[in-house]
Request: fold
Amino acid sequence: MNVIRSLIFYVGYVLAMLVCGVLFLPPAPFLPLASRYRLLNLYNHFIIAWFRLVCGVRYEFHGHERLPDGPCVILSNHQSEWETVYLQLLHPPVCTVLKRELLNIPVFGWGLRLLHPIALDRSKPARAMKQVLTQGKARLEEGLSVLIFPEGTRVSPGQRVRYNKSGAVIACRAGMPVVPVAHNAGERWPGRHWVKKPGRLTLEVGPPIETHGRTAEEVMAEAEAWIEARLAEISEVPRPEAAAERVKRPA
Reply:
């Protein structure tokens, strides 16, 4: 049954991408940025609803009222593709830090380019870090929130890697709050397998973490502690202890 559901889901997934490519991409470059986000994010709205309907997923969202009125740095754990779709809708307009290769995907990548992402070349980590810090601060000053996955890559449920502090550095330099987000999306939408699984998908938005007068290390430690504490409560797969052996970050 899960295989059949997943096949139906991907049929709708591809058709939605093609329809959006034909109807939304041509006018998008001529729209103001805020209107461009609203138009292109119709695809995201559809995918989130389609996934719930076809794959038997029950959403539980908490804490959205905690989001600040202005721009912020959103730090979320990263388990699957689901959160890359949904978090674009959390506090728009949102600039996402992502790998440059995604921009080369036909239709999907073309839409991403129009949303002012920070696209990184992972083969050049020093240059990528500098790019994140300079462009991230600039995006915040332009009024966009910045979405960063501090784990740096998809991490399967039940595994843990060291969090990168670049998001906290950006927030501290710009004087903007950090908003931690925790979810168990990888248990419903596996990051490394195409078959989707029914059940409860929980996402919780944490209270904003102020950055004024604080170091990036302090801010990052607080964000990581909150995310990991919430993951321990909402995850079906047990979380490893902080002192446990962590998986190595892929190159």
About this structure: The first helix runs from residue 2 to 23. Residues 96 and 147 are 5 Å apart (CA to CA). Helices lie at 2-23, 33-55, 82-86, 108-113, 125-141, 166-174, 216-234. The first strand starts at residue 57 and ends at 62.
